Automatic annotation (TrEMBL):
It comes from the Eukaryota. Residues 24-186 form the Pectinesterase inhibitor domain. Pfam families: PMEI. This is Pectinesterase inhibitor domain-containing protein.
Length: 208
């Protein structure tokens, strides 16, 4: 039951992250997003949802993770609808969509695990060994999401399915891949910032 309830709670809590506005992007967010593969997407998806005065890479990385969760849950739900319709029509594309749905369901689980682990990492009682263990887990889970999304898209090769539905599926899955790629990059930046501060090489909340 927990596996079903937690993503729903997260979706309700993070639903506002689906609204990407033309908000002015603070310089600090721009600098952090420059480390990602999709900096424009990174900035547009975070600008309206991160405190404009923040200098905390942890806050930015966690906001990016929330964006990934919302995108993945909405994509999973969309695939459920399409899969059901194709099954009723006995369309040969059904299996490819069903396989993609399975991959996206796994992605939601991996992102949920990452969110839980990120919450643990915020605990002041955690030792550096604990932090390193959680860091490895989050990196593994986010990387798995990237793998899942590309397996999903590869599964459609060889099928004649085209038109608006296919374009929508590919666009949504690709978007999950891109925001998650950004999340991983921002998380790695946060982890590096944490190590630098913990080792006494820097201080305060600012990073270059």
């Amino acid at each position: 039951m927990e596996k079903l309830v937690l993503p729903l709670i997260l979706l309700v809590s993070f639903s506002n992250f689906f609204v990407e506005t033309g908000a002015i992007v603070p310089k600090f967010i721009e600098l952090q997003c420059n480390r990602t593969h999709y900096p424009s997407l990174c900035a547009s998806s975070l600008a309206a949802h991160v405190n404009s005065t923040t200098q905390d890479p942890q806050e930015i990385a966690q906001a990016a993770l929330k964006v990934s969760i919302v995108k993945a849950v909405y994509t999973k739900n969309y695939l459920k609808i399409v899969s059901k319709e194709l099954k009723q029509k006995k369309a040969k594309e059904y299996q490819a969509v069903k396989d993609c749905l399975d991959q996206m369901s796994d992605s939601v689980s991996q992102l949920t695990n990452s969110f839980k682990e990120f919450q643990h990492m915020k605990s002041a009682e955690y030792s550096e060994g604990d932090f390193a263990w959680c860091q490895s887990n989050v990196q593994t889970w986010l990387s798995t999401v990237l793998t899942d999304t590309y397996i999903c898209m590869d599964g459609f090769y060889g099928y004649p399915m085209s038109g608006k539905v296919m374009a929508m599926i590919k666009a949504r899955v690709l978007n999950v891949a891109q925001v998650t790629s950004n999340t991983l990059a921002l998380f790695n930046g946060f982890a590096a910032w944490h190590r630098a501060n913990s080792n006494g090489r820097s201080s305060g909340k600012k990073v270059p």
